Amino acid sequence: MIRDGYGRSSTSRSVRVSSAHTTPAATAPLTPATLVGDELQLVERRLAELLRSREERLTDIASYLIGSGGKRVRPAVTLLVFRACGGTNLPDIVDVAVALELIHSASLLHDDIIDGNAVRRGRDSARHKYGVAETLVTGDFLFSRAFQICGRFDERLIHWAAEACIALTEGEIMQGRFRHNPQVTYGDYKEIIARKTASLFEVGARTAAYLARADDAVVDAIARCGKHVGLTFQMVDDLLDVTGAEATLGKPIGVDVREGNPALPIVLALTEDDEVRRLFAQAELSEAEVNAMLVRLRRPSIIEPGHRLAVEHATIAREALHALSDSPYREYLLGLIDQLVERVS
Amino acid sequence: MIRDGYGRSSTSRSVRVSSAHTTPAATAPLTPATLVGDELQLVERRLAELLRSREERLTDIASYLIGSGGKRVRPAVTLLVFRACGGTNLPDIVDVAVALELIHSASLLHDDIIDGNAVRRGRDSARHKYGVAETLVTGDFLFSRAFQICGRFDERLIHWAAEACIALTEGEIMQGRFRHNPQVTYGDYKEIIARKTASLFEVGARTAAYLARADDAVVDAIARCGKHVGLTFQMVDDLLDVTGAEATLGKPIGVDVREGNPALPIVLALTEDDEVRRLFAQAELSEAEVNAMLVRLRRPSIIEPGHRLAVEHATIAREALHALSDSPYREYLLGLIDQLVERVS
What we know:
The structure is a homodimer of 345-residue chains. Helices cover 70% and strands 1% of the residues of chain A. Chain A has 17 helices and two strands. In chain A, helix 3 packs across helix 7 and helix 4 packs antiparallel against helix 17. At the A-B interface, helix 5, helix 7 and helix 8 of A face helix 5, helix 7 and helix 8 of B.
């Protein structure tokens, strides 16, 4: 797990939402492209603008990552929430969506260094292609750009964004503490993914509602929704790393097992399977051991409760959305939450 | 060169200004400890507060670097400029000084990864002690903390700080372009150090004058002063890497020669010494070649013009300070500028 957040590459192809890859149908079905397509285009344009640097290399490396078909899940969710809350002032929310995507991208670049990832989004990682030094600096560049954009917002908003950035770093360190550590509990796991994955979803949702001038109670409900969408997203990602097919996912499976990450199926299996405990504690696994562990993790006694936990969080996210009145945006967000959990079942 | 800025470890022991290491004399000589000692203590206290994290490891690594006797040159200069401009509101300027020190520290941690430094400030670098992953994440943590503090300031100030952070990254990449590259000109060199070292000095000075409510023209003059102090500082550092004694500097010399960095003496020698050109272009140098190059770089025909260039920038910095009326703070800053260039002569 945890290839997203402080840099996780999600397995989810089915929730690709970037308008660049979606053709609006004549019947205008509910998709981000029909609902917030113009806004997403503004996001793309602003992103391209902000990747420009006096040093071409920074632009190249940043574009290599950001232009490589990231799903823009975070900007889309942020924009949909903003519209669902009745927001109208586009430049503000576009900048917020862009800032969050920049922070997310910076964390992906740094994560490639931390994990030594050779592959990201189906091709060479930036680290593999450009080396550690330039990849690290490009991450810092993107982070600085996000910081620059945030300058025009009020203190509260900057504080939320900075808190989310701090949570990313604290999540990364916490995950490190529990790597190969069979003492990890489900509570620890939830705290790690809350910091590493859910924090940016939460701040995106909170900020969108706030900028749409929603009431404080609504802002809090929407932030809760964002947080639980993030938790669901990560739990599903963890389950797919065990149950998914490489062909469908477009990336290797079993990454968490190989890296000793405290991912959902592993954390659940640790309480009942001594062999999983033994293998998880090992610093290195042979391919045979990886496969043996995957077989154990694919048991219904692990996957089914794992899925139920993801559904629980999806339900909390859905319920929080009822703080808003009905709209096509809200309807789409509800559908998106359903899609998230349907990926595993 | 360029171990400072995007993470340079300065050779200057003589300008140590941290109040923690200075005993105020009964006659109260002009030192930061007597002039802005209380302010520097507030900076230390606030730094300690901001290094706290939910993850002890982040606090440990950050404290390891920041507590290891950094010279606090940037906070001291920032505080002195603020007082020299008649500023009185301490919490603001303390937070700015702290934010800049956090950004500087983040860049030192990342620089240790980029350059593979095993030693920093006379002991194991954080990277050497804690490894790449945790050192990188701690840099991001410190950067996020700086971002968090800046939230309470107005847009213009955040914009300046973000621009300085962007300049650090662009300077790092630009330096990389000219490493081992004999095409590098003096103009390129100045641009690199303006971005990598002078940018944080400039933004510190600009912000201090701005927060002290100085006139726009004074703010610009003070920013110019900060920039040229930074340029001087770096040029002197580059000269000392060639002419200094390891025992006095407390660190190895010849680092720029070994790493192929476009440092001042090298850049000056390139125009007149074919052997320096040849050696600088080589990816690796033997110890005999390093020594041969150092001998060539120590010639008066290199060091003297190098020193004159540093003095030129020091003079610009001094002149800019005359935008302010006389005060002990201004007097000390003028003395500090003199000290900078006296280190080489």
